[in-house]
Design brief:
Layout (H helix, E strand, L loop, with lengths): L11 E5 L7 H13 L3 E4 L14 H13 L3 E6 L16 H5 L3 E4 L4 H10 L3 E3 L11 H11 L5 E5 L7 E11 H7 L11 E8 L3 H13 L2 H4 L2 E8 L12 H8 L7 E2 L13 E3 L2 E6 L3 E5 L1
Parallel strand pairs: 1-2, 1-3, 3-4, 4-5, 7-8, 8-9, 9-10
Antiparallel strand pairs: 5-11, 6-13, 7-12, 12-13
Helix pairs in contact: 7-9
Organism: Fluviicola taffensis (strain DSM 16823 / NCIMB 13979 / RW262)
GO biological process, one term: proteolysis
Keywords: Carboxypeptidase, Hydrolase, Protease, Serine protease
Length: about 300
């Protein structure tokens, strides 16, 4: 995997909105935040626009991504928010310059599409919080973004969970939003799960849909191939009127039974305030014990 160069004070970050429209105040806050850390910040021409649900037409949003990729001074591309729309840019953007001049792409949720695209291209990307959430994020969450940009390591410890399966794994990190990973199964953009540490998170899904996605991963052989599983925030899941009464832990353990890899729940990643950064495409070590869970990358 190609690791984009680390940033130093004075380097330039581009803020773009490749999916849903976003209020300008969130972009302004993020711009000031990165400037406070010594970076220059450029804002895409369509980043603050609105076209129906999106921040612009497909071509306008793609043009901002292309501008950020091709810009000779931009060293990192921060996606302002998710929602929906990133996948619609896959065929609109010429990604070749990203191979010639690698730069970080940061984001999560719908931006999991770009994390998976990076894996296919052979370039590391960062699954991180985004400007939409900066004002509510924990200090640790924001610090983890800066650490990645500066080329520094991240180490996370979180409380154990009664449903954890104890063990240790080392592997290439893949993952992100469960719905996006599910949507890419069977496509050229589905990650290579062989001996990988998989992390998943989601928001606003029906519990039965989580079960459906886990069945798909199971049938696709994902759980036969991974080295470890990290389950982050499963935020605002909804049950049916006549409830299934399933819990996240119950479903995950059902679909991974007879597998020996470690599993840790309640990881600090996802649609939660403490949303720590994970580098997709880089080796990490992950441990789940009776006392705590630990991730180092």
């Amino acid at each position: 995997m190609i690791c984009p160069p680390k940033l130093v004070p004075g380097d330039t970050i581009a803020l773009i909105s490749p999916a849903k429209a976003i209020e300008a105040s969130h972009i302004d806050f993020a711009k000031a935040y990165f400037e406070k850390h010594g970076f220059k910040v450029l804002v895409g021409a369509n980043a603050k626009n609105e076209y129906r649900y999106f921040s612009g037409t497909d071509k306008e949003r793609a043009a901002d991504m292309q501008w950020a990729i091709d810009h000779p001074e931009v060293k990192a591309i921060v996606c302002n928010r998710g929602g929906y729309g990133a996948v619609r840019l896959f065929d609109e953007v010429n990604w070749a310059n990203l191979l010639r001049e690698p730069k970080w792409i940061l984001g999560f949720s719908d931006i999991t599409n770009f994390n998976c695209l990076g894996l296919k291209l052979g370039i590391e990307t960062a699954h991180t919080t985004m400007p939409l959430n900066f004002q509510e994020n924990s200090v640790e969450s924001l610090d983890s973004v800066i650490n990645i940009l500066k080329g520094e390591e991240n180490a996370y410890i979180w409380n154990t969970h009664p449903s954890n399966k104890h063990g240790m794994a080392t592997g290439n990190v893949v993952g992100g939003n469960c719905s996006i990973l599910y949507s890419l199964l069977g496509t050229p953009y589905s990650p290579n799960y062989e001996n990988a540490i998989l992390f998943i998170e989601d928001i606003g899904e029906q519990v039965y849909h989580l079960d459906r996605m886990l069945w798909a991963f199971r049938f696709a052989g994902v759980f036969d191939r991974i080295a470890g599983l990290i389950v982050g925030g499963m935020t605002d899941l909804k049950d049916t009127a006549t409830p299934t009464q399933w819990t996240v832990e119950e479903l995950v353990l059902e679909h991974t039974r007879f597998r020996s890899f470690p599993i840790a729940f309640n990881a600090p990643v996802g649609h939660i305030s403490d949303n720590r950064a994970f580098i997709c495409g880089r080796i990490a070590t992950f441990t789940a014990t009776e006392e705590q869970s630990y991730f180092f990358q």
